[in-house]
UniProtKB/TrEMBL annotation:
Keywords: DNA-binding
Gene3D superfamilies assigned: Tetracycline Repressor, domain 2 (1.10.357.10)
Listed transmembrane segments: none
Residue ranges of DNA binding: 33-52
Residue ranges constituting the HTH tetR-type domain according to the UniProt record: 10-70
GO MF, one example: DNA binding
Protein name: TetR family transcriptional regulator
InterPro entries the record matches: Homeodomain-like_sf, HTH_TetR, TetR_CgmR_C
Protein's organism: Roseibium aquae
Domain of life: Bacteria
Tagged with keyword DNA-binding: yes
Keyword Transferase: no
Length: 186
């Protein structure tokens, strides 16, 4: 395994990544430093650098870690939505709702990465391209599916930039409306 770049992480790497994500969520991406991660994780600076040779590899690890988590949750949620127009897109709605409510680090981590080193978000871009291909194969109405996917992207964008004007209730209503668009026709 390449340290800090693979999809599989050791317990130490997971602890460091969770600390880094906590910093980004709490204080923003500009406060993500190796020193801050060391303090948050309980590892020495050398311990952090042993696991992730540079800040870029740490950020890459964050993106891969989050990408893997998101993908695993979408795969599980797909099982509940086999009767919809797009099981993948329906699952993405559920996972997006939970992540926006509970795990706001995803959008912010991707934003930090894309600003600092755009090529480091390739795992996430590849995952999303794979989802788009699945959605195209599943959906009877590709345009409708792309409207729903674009709306999900917009929710992530607003959350990442801290500019969402929707209340929790409004966002829930929008997500439920999207779900209804994907329900099977009787």
């Amino acid at each position: 395994m390449e340290q800090g770049t693979g999809g599989t992480f050791s317990a130490s790497q997971r602890a460091i990544l969770e600390a880094a994500l906590s910093i980004v969520c709490r204080s923003g991406g500009m406060n993500l430093t190796i020193d801050a991660v060391a303090a948050q994780s309980g590892f020495s600076k050398g311990g952090v650098l042993y696991n992730f040779k540079s800040k870029n590899l740490l950020i890459c690890g964050m993106v891969r870690y989050l990408t893997h988590q998101f993908d695993a949750e979408v795969a599980l949620a797909r099982l509940r939505h086999q009767d919809t127009d797009s099981p993948t897109l329906s699952a993405m709605i559920d996972v997006t709702e939970r992540w926006l409510n509970e795990q706001q680090t995803v959008s912010r981590a991707v934003l930090v990465t894309s600003v600092q080193t755009p090529s480091l978000i390739e795992p996430f871009v590849d995952l999303m391209q794979g989802y788009r291909t699945q959605i195209a194969a599943e959906s009877a109405d590709f345009t409708r599916a792309m409207v729903v996917l674009s709306a999900l992207d917009g929710l992530h964008f607003c959350d990442a930039h801290g500019v969402s004007l929707m209340s929790q209730d409004e966002r829930r209503a929008v997500l439920n409306w999207m779900r209804n668009l994907l329900k099977p026709k009787d």
